[in-house]
Design the sequence.
């Protein structure tokens, strides 16, 4: 009781603008990292699938390194060790962005790979038998069937990269978590500010999930009916589950 | 087609061809010549290498020994030759392999547009022509998933024809179909044969072989065991394995 009566959320309103700008920083970092990770992850997935072992092995090593070491350590490596090795110096935000992008790229790579290999071989064979070149097969036959398949797990990755930004405060990045941390030490209102931050993360997370579901409704479910992989429940589950091993903040949408 | 049969270049010529999957030899010393206008039926027990053989003809599989020449073009690593051969050769698969994200019409126009750089209207006109021919023009706006198996397979045939192939390969085109749909697909293939299309058909439909083929090839364990005109093949098979196979397929 005493704890509850001692709570005072009024300073939160006083610091609304720093919190707001922290949120803006968080959002654009997550968005940019995701925007970089989708094409990069797709490229790596193609290397994994179609490249020889010389291409395949380094990509596999990269993906595992990114997935099985903490983002926090990666950020520190990139900000402090990389300049020592390469002689290039990055601002904290740049290092944070590089770390987050690489990290998310690894997850996107897995999702894309699962999606691409879920498309039955007969699709590519029919297209090649018709005389289509690899590029045309990829853009006109494979990818249009991959997108609806990878949309749900990609949505999960998007939400995950939003939440992963909280770790980047280890560098001098003023994201929402870092701002919260600073203000709370300043005001001694630790509980109030962290709770406020949590509510903001929760709301944005819900909003993102809602948006993902909308996109899915529009492009995913209905198109899935027209994917050659639709009968292939196992591969589909694999495509959806690919990201489950990693950071996941929302449950995958129920199969209907 | 009359021009094609006048020339003496074989449509397909396979000489001393062998293929391995690792240590396992799938095809052994295959010799086969198909002249323009020929209608060849290939049969044999499951696993005898029929699919592998016809997939070598458009290089969906590569062979390791011997030569394959299609319409005078030698099939080797040369991508340009492979592309040239694929322009001459159409293929119909057991599982149809229609593109599920495209409408029937789009299925038929995709290759003409991307490979032949045909305009949309030309490609669509041609697609409708062939959809008429396989008797399903009214399905043009639907998606493959909305069609029956027999209809899908006829679309697959139309899709191939849209590329103006001189040779058509069929790999068990009716094996995935319910019995009542087999006839509509075989009828479409018979029409095609009557127009003089060069055809290589892997099938167990012996009625079709009798009526349409001018030669039947029997394969077993990666080898061509016997090849004969249908009358001789069915009435006077020489090889014991052919007899056994015919007993099993025609028997009951
Ligand atoms: N990709 C492959 N790798 C290894 N073995 C294969 C492969 N494809 C086919 N085979 C084997 O080659 C043999 C011939 O197969 P196939 O040509 O499909 O026979 P058919 O069409 O006459 O049933 C079979 O024993 C099959 O198991
Ligand atoms: Mg077969």
Sequence:
């Amino acid at each position: 009781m005493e704890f509850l009566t001692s709570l005072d959320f009024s300073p939160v309103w006083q610091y609304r603008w720093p919190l707001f700008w922290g949120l803006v920083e968080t959002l654009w970092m997550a968005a940019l990292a995701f925007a970089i990770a989708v094409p990069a992850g797709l490229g790596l997935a193609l290397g994994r699938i179609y490249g020889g072992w010389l291409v395949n092995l380094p990509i596999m090593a990269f993906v595992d390194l990114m997935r099985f070491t903490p983002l926090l350590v990666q950020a520190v490596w990139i900000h402090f060790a990389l300049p020592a090795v390469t002689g290039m110096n990055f601002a904290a935000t740049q290092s944070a962005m590089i770390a987050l992008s690489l990290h998310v790229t690894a997850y996107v790579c897995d999702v894309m790979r699962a999606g691409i290999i879920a498309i039955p071989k007969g699709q590519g064979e029919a297209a090649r038998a018709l005389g289509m070149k690899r590029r045309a097969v990829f853009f006109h036959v494979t990818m249009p069937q991959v997108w609806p398949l990878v949309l749900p797990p990609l949505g999960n990755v998007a939400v995950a990269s939003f939440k992963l930004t909280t770790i980047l405060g280890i560098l001098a990045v003023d994201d929402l978590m870092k701002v919260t941390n600073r203000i709370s030490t300043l005001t001694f209102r630790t509980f109030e500010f962290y709770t406020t931050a949590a509510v903001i993360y929760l709301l944005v997370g819900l909003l993102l999930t809602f948006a993902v579901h909308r996109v899915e409704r529009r492009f995913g479910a209905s198109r899935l009916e027209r994917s050659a992989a639709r009968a292939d429940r196992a591969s589909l589950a694999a495509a959806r589950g690919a990201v489950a091993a990693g950071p996941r903040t929302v449950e995958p949408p129920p199969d209907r | 087609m009359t021009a094609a049969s006048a020339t003496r270049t074989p449509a397909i010529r396979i000489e001393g061809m062998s293929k391995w999957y690792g240590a396992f030899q799938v095809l052994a010393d295959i010799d086969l010549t198909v002249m323009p206008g020929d209608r060849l039926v290939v049969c044999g027990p499951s696993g005898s290498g029929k699919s592998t053989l016809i997939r070598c003809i458009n290089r969906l599989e590569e062979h390791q020994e011997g030569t394959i020449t299609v319409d005078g073009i030698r099939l080797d690593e040369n991508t340009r030759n492979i592309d040239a051969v694929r322009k001459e050769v159409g293929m119909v698969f057991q599982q149809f392999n229609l593109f599920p994200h495209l409408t029937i019409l789009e299925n038929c126009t995709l290759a003409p547009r991307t490979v032949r750089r045909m305009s949309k209207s030309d490609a669509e006109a041609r697609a409708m022509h062939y959809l008429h021919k396989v008797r399903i023009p009214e399905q043009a706006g639907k998606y493959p998933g909305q069609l029956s198996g027999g209809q899908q397979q006829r679309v697959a045939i139309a899709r191939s024809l849209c590329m103006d192939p001189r040779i058509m390969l069929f790999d068990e085109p009716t094996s995935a179909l319910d019995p009542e749909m087999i006839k509509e697909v075989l009828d479409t293939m018979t029409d095609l044969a009557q127009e003089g299309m060069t055809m290589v058909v892997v099938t167990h439909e012996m009625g079709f072989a009798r009526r349409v083929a001018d030669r039947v090839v029997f394969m077993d364990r990666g080898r061509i065991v016997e090849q004969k005109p249908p009358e001789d093949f069915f009435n006077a098979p020489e090889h014991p394995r052919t007899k056994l196979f015919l007993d099993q397929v025609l028997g009951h």
Summary: The first strand of chain B starts at residue 12 and ends at 21.
